[in-house]
Amino acid sequence: MLKKLILENWKSFRYAELPIDPLTVLIGTNASGKSNLIDALEFLKRIVFGKEIRSALAGDAAFPGIRGGVEWASLKPESNFTLKVVVEGEDDETDYLYSITVQTKPLVQLSDESLIRQVYSPDSNQILTQTSLFQVSSPRTQDQGIQVKLPVQEQIFLPKYWKRSNSILTRLREIDSHADVRDVILNVCTILENIFIFNPIPAKMRNYSPLSDRIESDGSNIAGVLAALPKEQKDEFDSTVSAYLKYLPERDIQEVWAEPVGKFGTDAMLYCKEQWKPGQTTEIDARGMSDGTLHFLAIITALITRPEGSQLVIEDVDNGLHPSRLHLLINMLK
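The structure assignment produced for this chain is given below.
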C-alpha cells in the first residue's frame, strides 16, 4: 500500500506531504486543496495504466480531464510539478520512493523520473541505504528524448533515447530485467493501478444496473455488483450490514439484498426490509431508500469487493449522513 504522498508545485501546493495510514481521514475547509490531493493520486494511476502524460491531465475519449487540466496542473507561475509516493516494501525496514517530474509548458512532457529502494534502521526511522532502481537523465534540448539508467548489474539492452510522452515506470515492466528489479517495478505499478477513487452518488444508485464484478467509481451499479457476489462475499456483506447499517436510520433495517430482475436476469435491483413497528416490516427498493443509506451501502460494497491491498479513496465520505451517525462509519472503516 501507499505510505506517503508528496506534492511539489502541484496545483495549489508549493510543497506538502500526506502520510497515509490504513485509515486516513482528510478534513479541511472548502478550497483547502483536498480535491487536489485526490487528483494527484488519479494522475499517478492514469500514467501507470499507460496513458500519455498530456491525456492523463487533459483527458481524452475514455477519461475526463483532471480538474484544471494542463493549465492549472503546476502551481503558478511554475512550469513543472513533481509527485512522489512512498510504497511499502517486502518488510518493515524497506520502502520504495517513486518520483515523477512533469513539464507543463511550453510542452507537456516527462522531465524526470526515478525509483529508489530505501532501507531503514530497525531501531529507528533513519534511512541506512538508498539504491536507485532506475533514473532518467535530463535531455540537453526540449525535443530530445531522455536516457534511462539502471543499476550497474542490469546488463540489458535499452533504447538509447525514450520518448517523453509517457511514464518510464510502466514501460520498464515490459523489459526483461533482473528478477529483483522487475518484481519491484511490477509491485509499484500494481499498487498505483489499484488506487480507486470512489465518489458514490446516491441519485445514480436508484436504477437497475447490469450484473458486474467491479463497482463503478460513482457506485451507480451497486445492485449489479451485490447480486453477482459469490457466497463468501455475500456473507461478509450481510455480516457488515447487520453490524452497522441497522443503527444508521431511525427505522431498523432488517435486511439488504440485490437480486436479478427481468426476463433474462442480467440486470439487478437493490432492496431492503425496514421495520417500522415491532413485528411490522416493509420492503422497499433503491428508489425509496435515503441518500445516507445508499451512500453507506456503496462504501460497504466497495470495501468488500476491492482487491486486497488496494487503496480506496472515498470522496465526501460523510455525505448524506447525520453527524450523530458518523461514529458508525468510522468504526466500519477501521
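Interim note for the steering committee: The chain is about 25% helix and 30% strand. The longest strand covers residues 109-120.
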